[in-house]
Amino acid sequence: MAIHSAFSRTTSLAAKSAFAAGAAVLLTLSLASCSADTADAAGTDGVSYAADENTLVFGVVPDSVDTQTNYQPLMDYIEQETGKTVEYHESTDYAALIEAAIAGKIDVASFSGFTYITATNNGAAITPISSIVTTEGEVPGYYSQAIVPSDSTITSLDEFAGKKVCFVDPSSTSGYLFPSYNLLEAGVDPVSDVTAVFAGKHDVSVQKVGEGKECEVGFAEDSEVAKSDKVKVIAETMVPGAPIVVSDTLPAELKTQLAEVLGEVTIDDIIASGVTSADTQAFRDTFYATEPVDDQYYDTIRDICVKTSASQCQG
What we know:
There is one protein chain. The radius of gyration is 19 Å and the shape is globular. It has helices at residues 13-21, 31-41, 67-82, 94-102, 113-121, 173-185, 202-211, 222-225, 252-263, 267-272, 281-284, 299-308, and strands at residues 55-60, 85-90, 108-110, 126-133, 142-149, 164-167, 195-198, 217-221, 231-239, 243-247, 289-292. Helix 3 (67-82) packs across helix 9. Helices cover 36% and strands 20% of the residues. It folds into two domains: 13-20 and 139-239, 3-Layer(aba) Sandwich (D-Maltodextrin-Binding Protein, domain 2); 31-137 and 242-313, Periplasmic binding protein-like II (D-Maltodextrin-Binding Protein, domain 2, 3-Layer(aba) Sandwich), CATH 3.40.190.10. The longest helix is centred in the N-terminal third of the chain and has 16 residues, at 67-82. It is α/β, with parallel strands linked by helices. The strands form two sheets. A six-stranded mixed sheet has the order 2-1-3-10-4-11, sandwiched between helices. The two termini are 39 Å apart.
């Protein structure tokens, strides 16, 4: 049975210091260059598009091998409702999506909460409008799950000490930030007390833990964990739902339209509108509806950033 982790209001200063000193990866962001690129693309009225006025570039975090399949119906819906061509943009990794947002190279995007905070802290002009709900009756959000091989005797996070631990990416909310915090709460330094392995995608983290070779234990989001019978969950924490964001440099009327289109829509609404690509089990498994969210919704992540002193949170 999964053990629900609770947020504590205190974290050891020593643990924070160790985490900060040994942060696994520092994001290298060329802010000056990005600002120049954005300025070049902007019109005299400050309005700009990632590509052109007839195209909306939809950026995503590369979470799994099925990323494009999962988002295609939503992109088809945006295309239908706005009359613009929607161009899919999957970044090579989390840091690349952050850089794209700062450079004004995306118009609409699905971020993780952590990458949204990192991007805005580093100058990205984006605003969250909604978050995806995967199941009827639930609220936006998902679980960061601590996993072990299905035949493992490990039952608690403190037993992760000394192990080869699969994380997803240094900028992943459920695959690194929350796991790091939870390990610290369990008395395990996520840098010095474990051998960190960055799998790159949630499904790869699950796969590696299931194999039990490159990674003995690890973390991933619940939707990918549920697909495997080779791992089991020994702890989990609720994570604020990943935001759908729009660029602040789009025309005001288009931003308003996107907020209306994406702010509060169900899969049934999308299918009824004529988007047949949404009427599949694969899409139903990842999307039920969207619900409006705003910047303050992600204050929990800012709080975790403070508690872990994660360098990736900083501007």
